[in-house]
């Protein structure tokens, strides 16, 4: 880990811990988040952990904020005891709601059942939230499933759609444009204004996708609307 502090706005600094995405980064990012929250206290306006960085906004002068970051992160150790919440998200994997499922199978030489098995057998850490409220970037998927984003994004992706982009995976919390390779859909509400914190997922949480049948998906409140 190499600490770098970069200016991103008049009141915001980017605390960079790593240069590449890796699941092993998360215990360090979470530990840094805890230390910075405690160190800045009432002066902290916002703290956003991500794959390799934390964006920190405070009401302190930049020089003072830099000094406080350095003090807070001196001797930082990975927080291996904080693994966040564990979520099991049921997914109906089917070409009718995940049109890239057969495409991924053909591209990799795997059967659709093998693609589903590879995607659902791993537990994925949530690296960051972004793009849309409640959209959790997770990874890393099996290398055989790594797929580039669509060259032309869809104008409308149905809520709950589960997709893959490169070695990341995610589920769309609401209807939106998107260019990920869709392989299934979940009925789980990922963003809810009535929920404390709004988002089901938080950085540091872990997610396991569980394959369910169409009947189970529908019983959970699933929507079989086709992608636009």
TrEMBL record:
Gene3D superfamilies given in the database record: 3.30.1360.40, Cyclophilin-like
> A Pfam family this protein belongs to?
CT_C_D
| Keywords attached to this entry | ATP-binding, Hydrolase, Nucleotide-binding
Ranges for the Carboxyltransferase domain? 3-201
Q: Which InterPro entries match?
A: CT_C_D (IPR003833), Cyclophilin-like_dom_sf (IPR029000), PxpB (IPR010016)
Looking up SUPFAM superfamilies in the UniProt record yields:
Cyclophilin-like, PH0987 N-terminal domain-like
Q: What class of enzyme is it?
A: hydrolase
Entry keyword annotation includes Cytoplasm? no
Enzyme Commission numbers on file: 3.5.2.9
- List the Gene Ontology MF annotations in alphabetical order: 5-oxoprolinase (ATP-hydrolyzing) activity
By its UniProt entry, which NCBIfam families does this protein fall under? 5-oxoprolinase subunit PxpB
Q: What is this protein called?
A: 5-oxoprolinase subunit PxpB
């Amino acid at each position: 880990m190499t600490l770098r502090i970069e200016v991103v706005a008049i009141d915001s600094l980017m605390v960079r811990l790593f240069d590449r995405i890796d699941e092993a980064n998360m215990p360090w990012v979470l530990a840094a988040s805890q230390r910075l929250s405690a160190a800045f206290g009432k002066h902290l306006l916002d703290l956003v952990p991500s794959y390799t960085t934390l964006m920190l906004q405070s009401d302190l002068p930049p020089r003072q904020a830099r000094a406080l970051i350095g003090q807070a992160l001196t001797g930082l150790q990975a927080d291996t005891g904080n693994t966040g919440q564990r979520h099991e998200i049921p997914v109906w994997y089917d070409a009718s709601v995940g049109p890239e499922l057969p495409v991924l199978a053909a591209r990799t030489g795997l059967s659709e059942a093998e693609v589903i098995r590879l995607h659902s057998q791993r537990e994925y850490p949530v690296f960051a939230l972004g793009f849309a409220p409640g959209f959790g970037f997770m990874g890393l998927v099996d290398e055989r499933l790594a797929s580039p984003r669509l060259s032309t994004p869809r104008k409308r992706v149905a809520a709950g759609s589960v997709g893959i982009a490169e070695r990341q995976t995610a589920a769309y919390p609401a209807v939106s444009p998107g260019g990920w390779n869709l392989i299934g859909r979940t009925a789980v509400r990922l963003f809810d204004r009535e929920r404390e914190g709004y988002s089901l997922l938080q950085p540091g949480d872990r997610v396991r996708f569980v394959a369910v049948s169409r009947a189970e998906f529908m019983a959970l409140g699933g929507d079989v609307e086709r992608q636009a």
